[in-house]
């Protein structure tokens, strides 16, 4: 009793230890999984931010290139050239203004007007405005892209210029910043991300503060004092380094938030003018991860306690299951021994039946030979009677003698098949003669709807027991004939040389062998025939015979239907002895 109590106490301590271990392991696993998931989320989000900033860069480049290309196309139009010539001759800009106001470029939301410039003077506007008071906001570095301000209204524009193809005039399309920003920053990016375009030449910053596009000019000192995402953008621009970065930002409510951003400096951008960044709050990523972490911890606790209960139950039932397993193993072993014993008894019984049939066949053959002998003797006496020459009786006697002789040869072959094997019976054999002899024995068993085709292309000899090999081929031929019942078919027998082997093939056009049975057909007592029509030993004996002669047998299905048994036997060479 005390031993049982001590054992139960140890069992409880073991269970408690396993429970604590599983709990700690589960929490550790959950924490590690959470950190891996967080890292994976940030990596995926960095890739997403890069895709977004690349998309904004591409949109910016597309809009600027479109405006530049369309403006260049306008300067090469014949109508504009004619309007320029008329203006230069008469000073009348009416036709020039009308042509510019009707260009397709001005049908977009962002292209406001086209103005004509000569040297530093603004001459004509497509909106028929007479007083043109514009000021360039950045230094003229020779580019066709710059920032311009309408001094009368205080509005700022992107300016894309193109010289005339025929005169000293140049044409400038003014792009409204707010529609331009909304065009290149799609709604999904606009609503969920802080997207900034920064022009270092003018200090222009386009961003979506307070849910509206905001266009502001900052000096570099002002940007550095901000110490936020715009400061990070300036650092990347000055160092000409793109990629991902993090920064902190304090909201109007005094809450300090962590942000993640992706940056493309202007030198590495597709548009070639704006440095671009796309940012998002890290809390949008961290909070779902933390929520998942708490769920993981709860799940880990439940798994730990559930696992401890399962372990307790398994340990409690372990001894009983072990006893049952040992008992089942003993029963299985006994069952295997019984099955093997029954198989051996069936094999012995079958061999006894075969031996009895062999003895009976030998006896019948002997008695049949005794009956054939006087028939052959009497027919010979009739043939030797000169008085009967050239008569019908003489012809009948010859036919009787020849038929009896063939019958005696057939009985001799049947007798050879039924006699016991002996080591003295190993000798040189021509496979073609052996196969022809076998077909003579089973000729009466071949149905009329079965056609025999021979393809003998070998004169090589093999060394073996003629009786065993004859029985082997007889088995294969009879199996092939049975496979073609009742519809009949073609039985093909072929012999050829392949290296040091003679290849003997028995092929039929029957229904073939079920692929799942191909690996089982040579096992003793395996048969697919109906009960009473097969013992399952025929192919097993065939394989044993082939192996004893140093050969190999292969069973396969023909692609056109039916089965093919291939026997490989070594070629007999004189120098083997």
Major sheet strand order? 2-1-6-5-4-3
Q: Tally the helices: what do you get?
A: 12
Count of discrete domains: 2
Distance between the termini: 80 Å
Average pLDDT across residues? 79
Percent helix = 40-55%
Can you walk through the features of this model?
The chain has 577 residues and is of the alpha+beta class. It folds into 2 domains: 1-281, no CATH class; 423-576, Histidine kinase-like ATPase, C-terminal domain (Heat Shock Protein 90, 2-Layer Sandwich). The protein is built from 12 helices and 19 strands. The strands form 4 sheets. It has a 6-stranded antiparallel sheet with strand order 2-1-6-5-4-3. The chain is elongated. The model has no long low-confidence stretch (mean pLDDT 79).
Question: Key terms for this structure?
Answer:
577 residues; alpha+beta; Heat Shock Protein 90; six-stranded antiparallel β-sheet; 12 helices
Per-chain topology:
Blueprint: H1 2-75, H2 78-90, H3 94-101, E1 111-118, E2 121-125, E3 134-136, E4 145-150, E5 156-163, E6 170-176, H4 177-184, H5 187-192, E7 194-199, E8 204-207, E9 214-217, H6 220-226, H7 229-239, E10 243-250, E11 256-264, E12 275-281, H8 283-384, H9 392-418, E13 426-429, H10 431-441, E14 450-456, E15 462-465, H11 466-483, E16 489-498, E17 501-507, H12 538-548, E18 552-557, E19 563-570
Helix pairs in contact: 1-8, 2-3, 6-7, 8-9, 10-11, 11-12
């Amino acid at each position: 009793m005390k031993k049982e109590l001590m054992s139960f106490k140890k069992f409880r301590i073991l269970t408690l230890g396993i429970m604590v271990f599983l709990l700690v392991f589960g929490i550790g696993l959950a924490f590690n999984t959470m950190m891996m998931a967080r890292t994976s989320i940030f990596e995926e989000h960095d890739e997403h931010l890069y895709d977004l900033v690349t998309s904004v860069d591409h949109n910016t480049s597309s809009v600027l290139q479109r405006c530049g290309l369309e403006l260049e196309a306008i300067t090469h139009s014949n109508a504009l050239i004619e309007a320029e010539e008329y203006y230069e001759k008469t000073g009348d800009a009416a036709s020039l203004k009308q042509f510019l106001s009707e260009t397709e470029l001005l049908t977009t939301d962002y292209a406001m007007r086209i103005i004509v410039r000569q040297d530093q003077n603004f001459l004509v506007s497509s909106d028929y405005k007479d007083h043109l008071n514009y000021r360039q906001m950045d230094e003229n570095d020779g580019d066709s892209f710059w920032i311009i301000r309408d001094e009368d209204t205080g509005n700022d524009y992107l300016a894309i210029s193109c010289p005339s193809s025929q005169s000293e005039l140049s044409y400038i399309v003014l792009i409204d910043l707010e529609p331009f920003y909304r065009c290149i920053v799609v709604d999904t990016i606009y609503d969920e991300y802080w997207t900034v375009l920064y022009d270092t030449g003018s200090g222009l910053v386009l961003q979506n503060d307070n849910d509206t596009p905001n266009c502001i000019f900052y000096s570099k000192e002002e940007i550095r004092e901000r110490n936020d995402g715009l400061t990070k953008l300036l650092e990347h621009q000055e160092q000409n380094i793109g990629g991902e970065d993090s920064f902190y930002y304090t909201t109007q409510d005094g809450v300090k938030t962590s942000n993640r951003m992706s940056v493309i400096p202007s030198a590495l951008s597709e548009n070639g003018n704006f440095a671009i960044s796309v940012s998002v709050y890290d809390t949008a990523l961290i909070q779902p991860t933390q929520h998942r972490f708490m769920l993981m911890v709860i799940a880990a606790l439940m798994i730990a306690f559930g696992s401890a209960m399962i372990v307790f139950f398994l340990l409690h039932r372990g001894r009983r299951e072990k006893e049952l397993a040992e008992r089942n193993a003993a029963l299985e072993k006994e069952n295997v021994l019984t099955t093997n014993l029954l198989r051996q008894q069936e094999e012995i019984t079958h061999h006894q039946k075969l031996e009895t049939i062999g003895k009976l066949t030998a006896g019948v053959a002997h008695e049949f030979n005794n009956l054939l002998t006087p028939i052959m003797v009497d027919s010979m006496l009739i043939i030797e009677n000169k008085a009967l020459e050239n008569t019908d009786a003489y012809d009948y006697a010859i036919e009787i003698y020849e038929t009896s002789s063939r019958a005696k040869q057939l009985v001799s072959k049947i007798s050879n098949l039924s006699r016991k094997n002996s080591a003295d019976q190993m000798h040189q054999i021509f496979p073609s003669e052996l196969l022809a002899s076998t077909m003579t024995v089973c000729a009466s068993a071949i149905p009329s709807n079965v056609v025999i085709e021979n393809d003998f292309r070998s004169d090589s000899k093999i060394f073996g027991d003629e009786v065993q090999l004859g029985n082997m081929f007889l088995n294969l031929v009879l199996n092939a004939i049975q496979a073609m019942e009742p519809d009949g078919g073609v039985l093909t027998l072929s012999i050829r040389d392949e290296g040091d082997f003679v290849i003997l093939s028995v092929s039929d056009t029957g229904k073939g062998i079920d692929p799942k049975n191909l690996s089982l057909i040579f096992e003793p007592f395996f048969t697919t025939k109906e009960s009473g029509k097969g013992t399952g030993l025929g192919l097993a004996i065939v394989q044993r015979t082939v192996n004893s002669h140093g050969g190999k047998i292969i069973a396969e299905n023909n692609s056109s239907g039916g089965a093919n048994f291939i026997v490989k036997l070594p070629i007999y060479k004189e120098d083997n002895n």
